[in-house]
Inverse folding.
């Protein structure tokens, strides 16, 4: 009896070495910077032993310094608000665009793609000038600071969410939603109980992308900031990393930035695998029942 299990495709050795070299090239500087947050001295280039003094316990440590904690708190707040708003708006826009018929579809698609294809610096400058000099509602109602930063980050990230969810909708088609309508479900019930459940993996990926873009964003956040209370982690690192008084507490701050992104990505990945695995199991059960009927 032959083994029907498909064999894995092996990379050519030079290609595998190139991939690993690229991974190490990207990881080594990050891991090195994270390691020096546990240095026993102020040096960020020479190792003098292990210590957690730059994390807590001294006035210059990460969690005992008001500037560090303010930047950390503000970045997490921006990321949370941007993730929620971008995910909700992106999902609704993706559903709306797929249902638009006629001449209005192409202009809407073009407008949604503008933040993606526009360089981030140009988008940041445009948002800054719009919110500063255009005295017409809604621009006049948005002041520089947290609100403007959230608006700017949502403007930048929502297009990516739309693209991801529209791709999922294109794969699913409209057959399942139509079948639910034929079986007596109303428009809202078919949308929530059928289509949204199938879109959940794409929604999770969109939320993950939004969080990663938000917490790592520098250009838009910098242009739309107001004062020291709206300084994010990337802004603080940029302003202080080259200073002569910089300590490994900055490395600790960067470590929190990296770890928070990795945790969110890992959770989203696990939830995505759970959702797609459940979907594949339900599909297998449905096909089995159909064949046996």
């Amino acid at each position: 009896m032959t083994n029907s299990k498909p064999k894995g495709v092996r990379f050519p050795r030079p290609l595998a070495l190139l991939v690993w070299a690229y991974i190490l090239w990207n990881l080594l500087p990050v891991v090195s910077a994270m390691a020096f947050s546990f240095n026993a001295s102020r040096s960020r280039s020479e190792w003098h032993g292990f210590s957690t003094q730059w994390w807590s316990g001294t006035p210059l440590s990460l969690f005992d310094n008001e500037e560090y904690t303010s930047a950390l708190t503000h970045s997490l707040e921006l990321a949370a608000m941007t993730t929620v708003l971008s995910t909700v708006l992106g999902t609704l826009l993706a559903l709306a665009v797929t249902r638009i018929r006629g001449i209005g579809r192409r202009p809407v698609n073009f407008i949604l793609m503008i933040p993606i294809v526009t360089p981030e610096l140009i988008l940041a400058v445009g948002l800054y000038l719009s919110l500063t000099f255009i005295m017409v509602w809604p621009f006049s109602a948005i002041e520089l600071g947290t609100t403007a930063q959230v608006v700017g980050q949502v403007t930048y990230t929502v297009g990516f969410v739309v693209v991801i969810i529209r791709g999922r909708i294109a794969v699913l088609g409209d057959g399942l939603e139509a079948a639910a309508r034929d079986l007596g479900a109303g428009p809202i019930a078919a949308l929530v109980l059928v289509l949204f459940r199938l879109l959940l993996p794409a929604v999770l990926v969109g939320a993950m992308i939004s969080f990663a873009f938000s917490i790592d964003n520098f250009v838009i956040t910098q242009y739309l900031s107001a004062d020291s209370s709206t300084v994010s982690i990337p802004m603080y690192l940029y302003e202080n990393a080259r200073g002569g008084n910089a300590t490994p507490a900055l490395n600790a701050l960067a470590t929190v930035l990296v770890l928070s992104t990795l945790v969110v990505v890992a959770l989203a990945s696990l939830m995505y695998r759970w959702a797609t695995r459940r979907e594949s199991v339900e599909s297998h059960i449905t096909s089995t029942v159909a064949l046996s009927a």
The first helix runs from residue 13 to 35. Residues 67-282 form a domain with the MetI-like fold fold (CATH 1.10.3720.10). The chain has ten helices and no strands.
